[in-house]
Write a structure and sequence with these properties.
Layout (H helix, E strand, L loop, with lengths): L16 H22 L3 H13 L6 E5 L5 H9 L4 E6 L2 H13 L7 E5 L12 E7 L8 H11 E12 L5 H23 L2 H13 L3 H11 L1 E9 L4 E8 L7
Parallel strand pairs: 1-2, 1-4, 2-3, 4-5
Antiparallel strand pairs: 5-7, 6-7
Helix pairs in contact: 1-4, 1-6, 2-3, 5-8, 6-7
The structure holds S-adenosylmethionine.
């Protein structure tokens, strides 16, 4: 178990890339099933909305950060089959599932290519991607400011970044009901199905303790992004931040 559930707040130690990678390696076999089951399939709509927001165009090079089993990249390719997606993730087992899914969908390796790697040290040249996107991944990163700097570096001027992440509903009744589900039922079912209770205790704790969307948006702006869109989904369970890289400091 990588997450000490007695502590409510995941420490940076628990967000260390090797621990996070190991945790997702362990839960990879049941990740997709639990994702769709525990969100009643709404996660699919959130990813589609993020991809729509990015306005991916034919010929675009798109970076799917913390791509996991690849669903955000697949949504991008469904919307714009003539873009090229590069996925990067820490967890080898998640990437293996993504590769199998890509093969089943008949995609060739040039359409969606997967790399093992860390958001904090992207193995790419500067200013090469038209779009970048990260779904439910930024919360797991130890240093979000550094992550945004890296993403900013690899985006072309005017390139867009979509950040899709969980948050908690603000309306009191909805929040109370959701918290019962999120803090009690979800860890129970997730732990039972995945065989890794720690991972599904980490999920609500990491959302609870993560930077609120407004502050994350400020962090993006501090890096140089111009915020183009901020959207809450499904009563405030998740949100989308869309930022654009400025034109005048392309090599930042
Ligand atoms: C909740 S999953 C999201 C996967 C996928 N984006 C999706 O929408 O289903 C989080 C993923 O982030 C990856 N991850 C966490 N920290 C990372 C980092 N620093 N660099 C690269 N990947 C990371 C994990 O390995 C995991 O696959």
């Amino acid at each position: 178990m990588s997450f000490d559930s007695r502590k409510a707040i995941p420490t940076n130690h628990e967000k260390h890339p090797s621990r996070i990678g190991q945790m997702f390696n362990r839960i990879a076999p049941t990740y997709d099933f639990l994702n769709h089951f525990l969100s009643a399939g709404i996660d699919v709509k959130w990813r589609k909305a993020a991809v729509r927001g990015l306005g991916i165009e034919r010929g675009n090079l798109v970076l799917d950060l913390a791509c996991g089993t690849g669903d955000l990249g697949f949504a991008a390719l469904e919307k714009e089959p003539y873009c090229q997606v590069i996925g990067i993730d820490l967890a080898f087992n998640m990437l293996q599932i993504a590769r199998k899914k890509a093969a089943r969908k008949g995609l060739d390796t040039g359409q969606y290519t997967f790399f093992s790697g860390d958001i904090l040290r992207l193995p790419f040249h500067s200013s090469i991607f038209d779009r970048a996107m990260v779904a439910f991944g930024i919360r797991n990163v130890m240093d979000t400011g550094r992550a945004f700097k890296e993403i900013y570096r690899v985006l072309k001027p005017h390139g867009l970044l979509a950040v899709l992440e969980f948050t908690l509903p603000r309306k009191p009744l909805l929040r109370d009901l959701y918290l019962i589900y999120f803090r009690k039922l979800l860890p129970f079912i997730g732990g039972l199905v995945s065989g890794d209770p720690g991972a599904y205790q980490y999920l609500p704790s990491s959302v609870d303790s993560f930077t609120p969307p407004e502050v994350l948006s400020l962090e993006m702006q501090k890096t140089g992004f111009i915020i183009r869109t901020t959207k809450l989904y499904t009563g405030g369970i998740s949100y989308l931040l869309l930022g654009e890289k400025k034109a005048n400091n392309a090599s930042a």
